[in-house]
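quick q for whoever's on today - can somebody do inverse folding on this one?? i tried earlier but teh output was garbage lol. tokens:
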């Protein structure tokens, strides 16, 4: 990963996945202010400076070969509609974990599924990972639908493993395996 630039990916339905830019800080701040994203993600972002630092951390993850994080662009104006990431990458054992969110205006349009499919295709076919895992609260039914539609099979339910603002949640563990 570190020996090349993070790729720009094109997904069906006019989506482009590109690395995050410092100028996206306002969008990141707005995303983490959204009640749904705040509910399902433990991290918070309190300022544009903090959002820029988070974007810088995502960029360092590429250089460290631990994370590939993309802004998902959609629509004619190519507005940022969401985020998809392959994180906790372990190139030696061929595994990583996926994460994603979609901004309110883009929800329900299939963007999460298409972005996740494209990022997963890249991780399995081009990066050479063997296994991608995806975890979400069992109460997050939208995320479960995204996982299923993106080809991630449900493997297990882990009890009381995710701490959210409203307490401990059981987690579904999904996975997608490369060829």
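ok took a stab at it. sequence:
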């Amino acid at each position: 990963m570190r020996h090349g630039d993070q790729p720009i990916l094109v997904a069906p339905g006019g989506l482009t996945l590109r690395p995050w830019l410092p100028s996206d800080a306002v969008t990141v701040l707005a995303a983490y202010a959204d009640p749904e994203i705040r509910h399902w993600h433990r991290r918070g972002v309190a300022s544009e400076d903090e959002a820029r630092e988070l974007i810088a951390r995502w960029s360092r993850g590429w250089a460290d070969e631990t994370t590939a994080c993309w802004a998902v662009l959609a629509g004619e104006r190519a507005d940022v509609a969401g985020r998809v990431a392959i994180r906790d990458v372990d190139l030696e054992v061929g595994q990583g974990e996926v994460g994603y969110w979609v901004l309110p205006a883009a929800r329900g349009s299939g963007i999460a599924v298409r972005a996740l499919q494209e990022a997963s295709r890249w991780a399995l076919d081009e990066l050479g990972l063997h296994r991608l895992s995806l975890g979400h609260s069992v109460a997050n039914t939208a995320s479960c639908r995204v996982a299923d539609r993106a080809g991630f099979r449900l493997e297990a339910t882990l009890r009381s493993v995710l701490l959210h603002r409203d307490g401990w949640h059981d987690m579904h563990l999904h996975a997608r395996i490369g060829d």
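fwiw The chain has a mean pLDDT of 93. also DSSP finds five helices and eight strands in the chain. so keep that in mind when u check it
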